[in-house]
Specification:
Elements: H1 2-18, H2 30-43, H3 53-68, H4 80-87, E1 92-98, E2 101-107, E3 111-116, E4 119-125, H5 133-147, H6 154-177, H7 181-195, H8 206-219, H9 222-234, H10 239-252, H11 256-269, H12 274-287, H13 290-303, H14 308-320, H15 324-337, H16 342-363, H17 369-385, H18 387-396, H19 401-413, H20 417-429
Antiparallel strand pairs: 1-2, 2-3, 3-4
Helix pairs in contact: 1-6, 2-3, 3-5, 3-6, 5-6, 6-7, 7-8, 8-9, 9-10, 10-11, 11-12, 12-13, 13-14, 14-15, 15-16, 16-17, 16-18, 18-19, 19-20
Length: about 425
């Protein structure tokens, strides 16, 4: 799932880069924009100008330009040579380290560019005209739509909102890359809100909704992640991965009923997705509903006939419902597919061991000596069957203490003194 998130963000990054404007000369003047913002602030307080749609339209455009004033030529992935051609030589070049990775910082008057392997991966503005202009730009366009009831500005507003979406997308990716997931979520949410305006006529940015869910998930806002994953699923976006991720969010907020319903709905819509099926099986395994678990395991076995994990899981469930013969069959099948399957060997040995314990208990109830000896001998034979699979389990994983402890008990019971002492020594050295 982590890979899924990274892929999604890289795709989005590629989208942003492909939309970068190719410019060769500056079009935005910092000082001029400062003066224009002061004038705009005065106009929206003016009783007459504040009810004019044009006032708010121009303000929206101005705030978008202010957002870009330091980054007009900047785009993710650009090289250092390109940066120097467009922005001139930096005032200073510093070597910095982020999460153990060395990077270069190009220091300019109002912005620092951060490069890794000659590609721009991040930037930070050190001097700005407005701390957060894009949300205010959106509010300005909403005001235009409110005042312009005849729709005269709709076409131009839609063009500007498309640009605003790209600007928010850039913020979202920057936030994600910097692990500022709250910033990323807010940016994605603004894009969703933009699509809800009347100029879009119910057009929906499904990929944005999905990425908003991913960002919220990383931000730890699980309720919001659930909201957006559900929206994505309702819109048919995200495939089986969306169901899986939604399930993990429900588990995080301790809503196991919603989690299993999500998995089962996902499997119903994507019946070829083994991951969802295995998750359903795991749920019923942990919840103790062995019968339901077996039903889904049979479906899983049909999809992946050579998956030893499925046969092992079936073995554990058959053991829970008391069908020991079938359980042993499944453990053997898992070992047949993977001869180094520790858990299957261990469970097989434990099954023989538990059978022997029950047989000893029954033997102890017999008062007649000859009959008791016969029953005990049969129990001894059953216990001996546990040795080979448990010794193989120890061979595969010699660090597992439980295997040695079980073998020690068996060797002691069967008076296998040399083996007992050998295991006792190993245990003392662990």
């Amino acid at each position: 799932m982590r890979q899924l998130i990274i892929i999604s963000i890289f795709l989005l990054t590629g989208f942003l880069i492909s939309h970068a404007q190719e410019v060769s000369t500056p079009t935005l003047n910092y000082d001029a924009l400062e003066r224009k913002l002061e004038k705009s602030d005065e106009q929206i307080k003016d009783e007459k100008k504040s009810i004019n749609a044009k006032t708010w339209f121009k303000r929206g455009e101005l705030l978008q330009d202010i957002n870009d004033v330091n980054t007009e030529f900047v785009r993710l992935g650009m090289g250092k040579t390109e940066a120097e051609l467009l922005l001139n030589q930096p005032n200073e070049v510093r070597t910095i380290e982020e999460e153990g990775t060395k990077k270069e910082m190009y220091v300019y008057d109002r912005i620092n560019l951060i490069f890794e392997n000659d590609a721009l991966v991040n930037w930070e503005e050190t001097e700005v005209i407005h701390p957060n202009p894009l949300p205010e730009a959106f509010e300005a366009y909403k005001k235009v739509l409110e005042l312009d009831d005849q729709g005269k500005y709709d076409s131009r507003i839609k063009d500007n909102l498309e640009r605003l979406k790209r600007q928010f997308e850039e913020k979202a990716v920057m936030g994600f890359n910097k692990k500022d997931y709250d910033m990323s979520v807010k940016a994605f949410e603004n894009i969703v809100k933009i699509s809800d305006t009347r100029v879009y006529e119910e057009q929906i940015d499904t990929i944005i909704i999905y990425n908003a869910a991913l960002a919220a998930r990383n931000a730890g806002d699980h309720e919001k992640a659930i909201e957006y994953f559900k929206k994505a699923i309702d819109l048919g976006y995200g495939g089986s991965d969306a169901y899986y991720l939604l399930k993990t969010e429900y588990i995080t907020v301790n809503d196991s009923n919603a989690a299993i319903k999500t998995l089962e709905e996902g499997y119903k819509n994507y019946p070829d997705t083994t991951l969802l099926l295995i998750e359903i099986v795991n749920y019923y395994l942990t919840s103790g509903d062995s019968e339901k678990g077996l039903q889904y395991l049979e479906l899983a076995q049909q999809q992946e006939a050579n998956n030893p994990d499925i046969y092992f899981a079936q073995g554990t469930l058959f053991e829970k419902v008391g069908d020991k013969e079938k359980a042993m069959e499944m453990y053997n099948k898992a070992i047949e597919i993977n001869p180094e399957y520790f858990n299957a060997y261990f469970n097989k040995g434990a099954l023989y061991y538990n059978n022997a314990v029950e047989m000893y208990e029954e033997a102890n109830k017999i008062e007649e000596l000859e009959a008791y000896n016969k029953a005990k001998a049969k129990a001894d034979e059953e216990l001996k069957k546990a040795i080979a699979p448990l010794e193989k389990a120890y061979e595969i994983n010699p660090e597992e203490r439980a295997t040695l402890e079980t073998l020690q008990t068996i060797y002691y019971r069967l008076q296998m003194t040399d083996k007992y002492e050998e295991v006792k020594k190993k245990l003392s050295e662990m």
